[in-house]
Automatic annotation (TrEMBL):
Family: Belongs to the UPF0337 (CsbD) family.
Residue ranges occupied by any CsbD-like domain in the UniProt entry: 5-56
The protein's name in its UniProt record: CsbD family protein
Compositionally biased region (Basic and acidic residues): 7-20
Gene3D superfamilies noted in UniProt: YjbJ
Highest taxon, organism lineage: Bacteria
Amino acid sequence: MGTTDDAQNKAEELKGRGKEAAGSLTNDDDLKNEGKGDQAQAKGKQKVADAADAVKGTVDNVKNKLTGH
């Protein structure tokens, strides 16, 4: 996980915002909803990445305490 995943998730969220905005401007509800879905998916992926980073940090802390590093 890390900054690459963060950047990809942010890019996906921005793409979704663009679709939502385009759908709003053109009264295309399907495109608007697709954009909202893209945003929700990106936010979900980011939450998973954040949780994985938190678990890795906790595991590293425990490992360091056990090994004395």
